[in-house]
Amino acid sequence: MVEVAADLSLVERLRVGDAAALEALMERYASRVYRLAHGILRNAADAEEVVQDVFLTLFQKIHTFEGRSALASWIYRVTVNAALIKRRGRKSDREVSIDAQLPSFRPDGHRAGEDALVTVDWSQTPEADLLSRETRAILERAIDDLPVAYRTVLVLRDVEGLSSEEAAEVVGDSVSAVKSRLHRGRMALREELTRHLGPRQAR
Amino acid sequence: MITCKRLIEEFLADFLDGTLGPDQLAELERHLSLCPPCVAYLNTYRKTRDLVQKQAIDMPPEMRAVLRKVIRDRFSRHTP
Question: How far is A160 from chain B, CA to nearest CA, in Å?
Fold first, then answer.
């Protein structure tokens, strides 16, 4: 509740053009904007530009914020839009079709694939190995490979901790679409991690 | 009994959210008690989610200082 009250007073000050309020808004929200922008765009330089764009936009467009959603939702939405616009200008695109990344199943409903990989449970791998530079690089690349719509939902839900309802409001989609996209994104990442961590475990 | 495909594609996400209905929960638990590959899947799916959370890139402190300066320079004439 304290956060809501503080947000409302910032909004009022921004509406009358108080630039110091913009700085306060930045202190409060810059980390979140950066994490989301970086999650979508995958590099620091682009993310930095988006953070600046977002705060300038927030100041210029504060009159369009009607207070129907939470301020954080609005800020996330502006961030997603700014990141997607910046992404359009970039030629390099690692995206791989999501279906190609999902687990496949046999006609009897069991998972298809090499026995060892289907049964391996690498979840108990020591944290030091899971957080190693090598594993982080594999996960980073796997996230790069997700189609951007899946990556966006993944960051909103699993990194920023938004609920399905909040994430749906940010991306302008239904809750069921967001849930499905999150699940498929996580499944794709799990497949990739298993390909690398599985064989080690199964030895 | 539900198949692995049904468990993974339809039940798993709601199970982790705690929104699976009682009948579906019973079916999921029954399947897990008989299917080590699905137990492995559940554990590694959960772990994947945890790793994604730890993968988050935080804003470099220098960038915050730059942002502060940008805002001050750009809007120094806008203080009422």
Answer: 8
